[in-house]
Design the sequence.
């Protein structure tokens, strides 16, 4: 019986396994192989070399990578700071209102990211919702905040808020109330409770939230294209261009590999530092 | 005017949650160095009271004094008191040593002094020094209890509060820790204020006990007084089995009419209305009706073996159930349903006046 169960288990895992192989690992492998082909070829039947990787340095692609990682880093920090109070309230204070809030945030995900970003363009552009009304009432106009680094970071924060908020709330929910009360009773002030009890005990949620939003923001294209008007070029934008207009698959692949390795290393490092089982529901 | 030795004073403390009154004007004085226990059933307001005393909740009315200082508006982290939680509330992300050091670290005590003090406390609570580096999750229930105590003692509070810390432990461990706690109280000389729903636990450890019911104190007295001289039916019945006889001179059928008063032994005046209490161990099995001050016959209904003692339940002619307890060697050999003469002496009774 046990053996039969085991067999059935493997058998039912087979479709998912096949999907993983075909949809995840196969393209990765192809990208990996293309990245060591000479530039501008469309076949894997060439002598492998690392020319495509050297292009990363010689043609300034590293600048795009630095922009992407930098903006992702800043937006993650901003997300962490602004999500904490809300996540705390959702975990500890709001009770039933938390469900309403959760639904509201999830609902925003139902509308495509691009459409929501264009909505912001209409809101913020010169003569748009904000500036247009302001000018017609006061007679004074002002420059649109669009097409700059600031507005790209705003877009990243706006789009990836749910990916920070929910893991964070989950993490904060794991901080036992009596541990906070005991710390206060033993003489800790608000900040000491925050740094010595809340932060370390909510760490799994913080790590997951930061990883999710950082990884997504580092690979984001739409924010810089739509809101930023390509004021800066992100690495994901470069990759897309290499594969499409550039017609240079090896360079696109090499750029992809660099991004994958950096983000993969970060993710592994982060995950290895916390006990993910806790946040998945298994208690200490 | 105020007595120097009074450490904690509560003056008409009221706590309301919306329209519900959890504490109805509670007043209390606790001496320095005392082991004071507040006992009550769940919902009696004892947990509410302790949360007010530590500063985790705000009181609605009244005053709390610690020595000559009013503390009822002081936040928990600025009060010189400390509590051992029911859940212990140890910090799971810190080692045993870090847990104990926590209050010292907040006071910026040097690393060396912190360590020395922690090792001292480990020794005081009979934990091996190697536990300094142990994780909380590796400690047993009893060990965690001791770590929580050590952490509270490291804070060096004026008063140490306990919120039913032993209630989650099994019987044997609880008994051991009760005695250890009493011993610790004597060795540290600190003032302990303890909360429990078990009067038995309270009696083992306390200097004085306050019985709480429905948001107020029923009686505050020593363990002995609570047991033998309760002031209300609630207190009398709180500690296990008790026999209460109604005394009412106006009712003809009253069992004690005339008989109770001529002795004057228990200081009851002629027309007093109330309850006469006899603990089960003072009811005797008699051979005739003249052996004791009071005697009556009853039918044996049930018999329970309690280990060192045997408990009997008997029903009087009037229908009242009487509980009798005898030591094992004094037990009787009677069939269930047989008639037995019961008796007790006036000197072993206590009169609870009711209005």
Sequence:
């Amino acid at each position: 019986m046990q053996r039969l169960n085991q067999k059935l288990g493997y058998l039912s895992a087979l479709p998912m396994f096949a999907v993983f192989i075909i949809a995840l690992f196969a393209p990765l492998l192809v990208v990996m192989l293309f990245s060591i082909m000479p530039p501008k070829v469309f076949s894997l039947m060439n002598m492998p070399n690392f020319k495509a990787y050297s292009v990363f340095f010689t043609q300034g692609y590293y600048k795009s990578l630095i922009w992407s990682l930098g903006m992702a880093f800043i937006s993650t920090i901003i997300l962490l700071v602004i999500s904490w109070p809300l996540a705390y309230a959702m975990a500890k204070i709001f009770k039933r209102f938390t469900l309403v809030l959760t639904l509201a945030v999830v609902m925003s995900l139902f509308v495509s990211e691009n459409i929501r970003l264009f909505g912001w363009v209409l809101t913020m552009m010169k003569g748009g919702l904000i500036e247009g009304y302001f000018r017609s009432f006061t007679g004074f106009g002002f420059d649109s905040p669009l097409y700059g680094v600031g507005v790209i970071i705003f877009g990243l924060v706006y789009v990836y808020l749910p990916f920070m908020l929910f893991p964070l709330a989950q993490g904060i929910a794991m901080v036992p109330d009596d541990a906070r009360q005991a710390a206060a009773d033993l003489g800790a002030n608000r900040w000491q409770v925050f740094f010595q009890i809340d932060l370390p005990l909510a760490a799994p949620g913080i790590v997951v939230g930061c990883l999710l939003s950082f990884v997504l923001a580092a690979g984001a294209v739409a924010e810089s294209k739509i809101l930023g008007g390509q004021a800066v070029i992100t690495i994901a934008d470069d990759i897309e261009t290499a594969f499409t207009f550039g017609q240079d698959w090896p360079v696109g692949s090499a750029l992809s590999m660099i991004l994958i390795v950096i983000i993969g290393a970060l993710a592994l490092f982060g995950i290895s530092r916390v006990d993910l089982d806790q946040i998945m529901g298994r208690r200490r | 005017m105020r007595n120097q030795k009074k450490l904690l004073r509560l003056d008409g403390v009221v706590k309301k949650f919306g329209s519900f009154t959890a504490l109805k004007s509670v007043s209390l004085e606790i001496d320095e160095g005392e082991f004071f226990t507040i006992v009550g059933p769940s919902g009696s307001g004892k947990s509410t009271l302790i949360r007010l005393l530590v500063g985790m909740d705000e009181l609605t009315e009244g005053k709390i004094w610690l020595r000559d200082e009013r503390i009822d508006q002081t936040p928990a982290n600025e009060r010189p008191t400390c509590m051992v939680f029911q859940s212990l509330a140890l910090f799971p992300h810190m080692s045993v040593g870090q847990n104990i050091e926590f209050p010292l670290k907040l006071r910026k005590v040097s690393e060396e002094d912190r360590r020395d003090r922690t090792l001292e406390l480990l020794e005081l609570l009979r934990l091996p020094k190697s536990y300094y580096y142990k994780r909380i999750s590796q400690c047993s229930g009893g060990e965690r209890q001791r770590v929580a105590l050590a952490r509270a003692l490291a804070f060096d509070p004026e008063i140490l509060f306990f919120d039913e810390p032993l209630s989650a432990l099994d019987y044997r461990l609880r008994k051991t820790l009760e005695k250890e706690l009493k011993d610790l109280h004597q060795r540290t000389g600190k003032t302990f204020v303890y909360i429990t729903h078990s009067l038995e636990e309270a009696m083992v450890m306390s200097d004085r006990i306050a019985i709480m019911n429905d948001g107020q104190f029923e009686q505050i007295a020593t363990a002995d007084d609570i047991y033998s001289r309760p002031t209300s039916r609630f207190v009398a019945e709180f500690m296990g089995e008790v026999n209460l006889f109604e005394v009412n001179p106006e009712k003809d059928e009253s069992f004690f009419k005339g008989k109770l008063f001529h002795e004057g032994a228990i200081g009851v005046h002629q027309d007093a209305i109330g309850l006469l209490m006899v603990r089960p161990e003072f009811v005797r099995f008699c051979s005739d009706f003249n052996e004791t001050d009071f005697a009556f016959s009853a039918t044996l209904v049930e018999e329970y073996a309690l280990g060192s003692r045997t408990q009997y339940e008997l029903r009087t002619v009037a229908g009242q159930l009487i509980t009798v307890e005898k030591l094992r060697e004094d037990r009787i050999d009677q069939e269930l349903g047989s008639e037995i003469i019961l008796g007790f002496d006036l000197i072993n009774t206590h009169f609870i006046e009711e209005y």
